[in-house]
Amino acid sequence: MTVVLGIETSCDETGVGLVRDGVLLGDALSSSMAEHARFGGVVPEIAARAHVAAVVPCVNEALTRSGLSLNDVGAIAVTSGPGLATALHVGVAAAKAYAMTLGVPLYGVHHLAGHAAADTLEHGPLPAKSIVLIVSGGHTSLLLVNDLVLDPVVHLSDTLDDAAGEAFDKVARILGLSYPGGPAIDKVSRDGDPHAVKLPRPLTGPRDPKLGFSFSGLKTAVARHVEAEQKAGRELAVADIAASFQEAVADTLTRKAILACRLHDVSTLVVVGGVAANSRVRSLAAERCAAAGIELRVPPMRLCTDNGAMIAAVGDLLVRAEAKPASLSLATHPSIELTWAQLDRSVAEVLQNQ
Ligand code: KG4
Ligand code: ZN
Predict the structure, then answer these.
(1) Ligand 2 mean position to 107 CA, how many Å?
(2) Relative to the alpha carbon of 137, which ligand is closest?
(3) Domain ranges of the chain
(4) Which of 19, 92, 104 has the alpha carbon at shortest distance from 62?
């Protein structure tokens, strides 16, 4: 069985993981998050510079934790899109160097396929058909997934404006909470009343697209409420506002995800991406899936946010599917949609050419 080394550098986390036959052998993570905090968002040049410094130490640490050496690595997988261009370049260049010096195959992986594959490291192979809700800083999508690496991914809906994580980050800023906003809102909400502030549930009207997402209006509703409170000279009830916002997001996400399962006759829901780390999203999804008789799969918190193990997991699936590797001219795709888990060389294309 091949040991796959996965490298992730699409945003502010340098992640490396080693996976063999669906099993995570070890991983390492280095984050430049603290360096971006004072800018209120990720600064691509700072992220890229941090990746340059961290990528080799992360590979070495993941190897040490796995009890393996570089010579045990049989394939390299790397996020080649989507993400910040300069950040992606660092991971792809490192992956090529490892693939070339070790003489092993190289696979370009779609970052969002990585998020979905993360769950397989905890709960085993995905069923033949599942609904995947991807909720991250850059994406909010409901996907119909058959075989994650052999079949194209079908998009049932994508957010019309802000991603859920982006809304968390922006609302946190409005409330004066630290970056990244998701974990800050999650924490402060524990002391808040989720019904204290009446906030809209976007795109849930009878004429709205049933599976559609939009978070920009919700963010504006929070901003209006904050403005009104300040104008009235009242002290901001930060915990209550945060909890009410979190409840609105969790309600909308889980309601639509369960509807997608019903509409497509699918009995497994997989919730992945940074916002899947949110405690209310997790508990409401569990509650509603149990009531609807749907199996819920959510990766452990540390595999929800960006990491290298999830990219190695896709690489491992590709190796086992005997997908054709990429060439050393593998490109980066900063804004590519998720259709194929493998970038630059779809498995369908490979199978057709066989
Ligand atoms: O998947 P991810 O690590 O990176 C992207 O691919 O975007 O997601 C990052 C996003 C950020 O917007 C962050 O605020 C959000 O996930 N996030 C959370 C939580 N932890 C991270 N949002 C809500 N609650 C959390 N506990
Ligand atoms: Zn991500």
Answers:
(1) 18
(2) 1
(3) 3-117+304-350, 127-298
(4) 19
> Are domains 3-117+304-350 and 127-298 of this chain identical in fold?
yes
Alpha-carbon distance of 189 to 195, in angstroms, equals: 11
Cβ(108)–Cβ(344) below 8 Å: yes
Can you tell me whether residue 296 is helix, strand or coil? Answer: strand
Locate 301 and state its tokens: 């918190």
Q: How many helices (H) and strands (E) does the chain have?
A: 12, 11
pLDDT tens per residue across all 354 residues of the chain = 999 999 999 999 999 999 999 999 999 999 998 999 888 889 999 999 999 999 999 999 999 999 999 999 999 999 999 999 999 999 999 999 999 999 999 999 999 999 999 999 999 999 999 999 999 999 999 999 999 999 999 999 999 999 999 999 999 999 999 888 999 999 999 999 999 999 999 999 999 999 999 999 999 999 999 999 999 999 999 999 999 999 999 999 999 999 999 999 999 999 999 999 999 999 999 999 999 999 999 999 999 999 999 999 999 999 999 999 999 999 999 999 999 999 987 555 655 555
Q: Which amino acids bring their CB within 6 angstroms of ligand 1?
A: 11, 136-138, 165-166, 168-169, 180-183, 186, 273-275, 277-278, 305-306
Among all ligands shown, which has an atom nearest to the Cα of 113?
A: 2
Q: Note the ligand closest to the C-alpha atom of 139.
A: 1
CATH topology of domain 127-298: Nucleotidyltransferase; domain 5 (3.30.420)
Write down the CATH superfamily of domain 3-117+304-350.
Answer: ATPase, nucleotide binding domain (3.30.420.40)
Which of 31, 133, 168, 307 for a ligand 1 pocket mutation test, highest count of atoms within 8 Å of Cβ? 168
Atom of ligand 1 nearest to the CA of 163: 12
Whose CA is closest to atom 14 on ligand 1?
182
> Of all atoms in ligand 1, which is nearest to the CA of residue 168?
14
The amino acid occupying position 146 is: N
